[in-house]
Amino acid sequence: MTADTSGNMEKNTTTVLRAAWIIAVVTIVSKLIGFVRDVIIAKYYGASLVSDAYYYAYQIPSLSLILLGGVGGPFHSATVAVFSKLIPSLNEKPSDEVNKLYSTFMTAATLFFLILSAIMLIFPKQIMGLIIAGGSAEMISLSAEHLKIMTPLLVIGGIVGIYYGILIIYKQFMLPNLSPIIMSAAIIGIVIAVPNDNKGYALAWATTIGAILQLVIQYPNVKKLGFLWRPNFNFVNNPNFKAINELLFPAILSSTVGQIHIYVDMFFTSSISEGAWTAIGYANRVFQFPVGILVTAFLVPLFPIFSRLVANKDMNGIKTYFNKGVGVLFFASIPIIIGIITVGYDAVKVVFERGAFDENATFMVTEALWFLSVSILPYVFRDSITRVYYSFNDSKTPFVVAFSSIVLKYLLNYVFITKMNAGIGGITLSTSLVTLFNAVVLGILILRKLKMDYAGLFKNLAKMCIAGIISFILCFSCANYLSAGILRICIVGIVCLTSYTALNLVFKTEYVTELKNRIIKK
Question: What's the rounded Cα separation, in Å, for the pair 286 and 366?
């Protein structure tokens, strides 16, 4: 490795870490306000018929706004992968060619989602009837009304995803990660303001208004960068638009497959108990609070680097950055797992248990969370390796792997719920096992493109796991001697972080030692 290459790598590493800190801080603020939103919803709706209907209906528009159009979604990923290679300098306005491609992409996305929106408006009862076949007629009807109100989210999601991609290419990391606060604030304000007798559809209206505001806040910055949307229907014989589609559509299908997994869960959950789907939703939100921060913070700045390294055919650079990124994510994930298992119940009780959210709801959320926590390590690996595939303009492989897991998801749910009566825990355990399956298969298939340095990565993971097991024993013992509540959460957290970090330093875990040296240097 030449001095110049080494210098560039050091510079990129510093840039990634700096961006990761910025994104982490902004995402923490966003997640905290999102937590306040969930606490408000839990207080006024609990785990009830109305909350179930809202969350059932929300799964469809959220496919566009969060999975397809969110940070890390197909529209964001396709924008970064293609446009970052067409923009030679971030200090100049985009060329006419780039602006035409942007207009073509925006036009196609809008038309696509308008068609989907029309279908949602015309057939809401039929759609919800298919998804929650085990639900009551009242549940299906209520969910259909929620779906009609939230239909605009479909169109907004695709546009916001493209905006996110453009802003992140230009290293404007803050706004894309900050804008979800707008939706949370809208939900908080409207749910509190609406009288109790009229809260039935308040959540759906608040969500729609929040999504519109989320779009409005992004537009001025995109326009300031020089991107102007003029309807352009140049869909044929357009090589760059073809490149977008070759990446985008398999990625959309892959995300849609993920949504099918959710629909399979909804089908089985509707036969468990009232409030079960709401409980699983809250468990996912608790899960995503730390894990979402980690994945977003490191993968958002790393993805454009992966794409440029592929363009420069620097395979060693990809392996190095992948191992560093995933290694840090692994290191941070293990204490989260320990915390969920030892004091997860206390955390859910402190955050949610008030108003209509009772002790039974607390246990349902915690049960789902326990079984979901085992998916954290395969989750961060799967999302990281998927970005490497996207950098090679390959979204077909992640799609095929995700599609093949649908049958596995159904079979696991059938065994755990129908045969073993495992309840809510069975739903989230099947999710964890499917995540592990996807991570393993994607990790093996990437070897066809480049030989990854898994030996170094998993050797360090083994050290982390040994440190984690010892820390878990200490934390579990500590928790048994303390009364439930905030004090137990804090003390167990301190014991966990102190013992786990110290043990990794003793074991000389590579990424931990490097982080320590960087902190000392600063």
Answer: 10
The whole-angstrom separation of Cα 322 and Cα 388 is 8
Q: What is the distance, to the nearest Å, from the Cα of residue 374 to the centroid of all Cα atoms in its chain?
A: 16
Contact 168, 21 (CB under 8 A): no
Task: Give the model's confidence band at 498: pLDDT under 50 very low, under 70 low, under 90 confident, else very high.
Answer: very high
- Provide the residue count of the chain: 522
The DSSP call for residue 194 is: S
Positions of E strands within 336-452? none
Question: How far is residue 285's CA from residue 269's CA, in Å, rounded to a whole number?
Answer: 17
Report the candidate in 299, 459, 266, 468 with the shortest Cα–Cα distance to residue 374.
Answer: 468
- Spatial distance between the Cα atoms of 205 and 421, rounded to a whole number of angstroms: 36
Beta-carbon neighbour count of residue 42 at 10 Å?
Answer: 24
Residue 68: band (very low, low, confident or very high) from pLDDT cuts 50, 70, 90: low
| Residues 214/198, Cβ–Cβ less than 8 Å | no
* 239 token code pair: 């090589």
DSSP assignment of 343-369: HHHHHHHHHH-STT--HHHHHHHHHHH
Most confident of 52-61, 204-213, 264-273: 204-213
In whole angstroms, give the CA distance from residue 157 to residue 165: 13
Alpha helices in 198-356 (DSSP H): 202-224, 239-269, 276-311, 315-352
Predicted TM-score of the model (pTM): 0.67
Write the pLDDT tens digit of every residue in 27-52: 777 777 877 887 888 777 776 677 77
Which residues, other chains included, contact 480 with Cβ-Cβ below 8 Å and sequence gap of 6+?
none
d(CA 283, CA 38): 11
**Identity at 427, one-letter amino acid code:** I
d(CA 300, CA 15): 12
Q: Which residues of 387-413 are buried (b: 16+ CB within 10 A; e: fewer)?
A: bbbbbbbbbbbbbbbbeebbeebbebb
- Band the pLDDT of 441: cuts 50, 70, 90: very high
Indicate the SS3 state at residue 71: coil
Query: What is the per-residue pLDDT across 2-35, written as a single tens digit (0 to 9) for each?
Result: 444 444 555 555 555 566 666 667 777 777 787 7
pLDDT tens, 461-470?
999 999 999 9
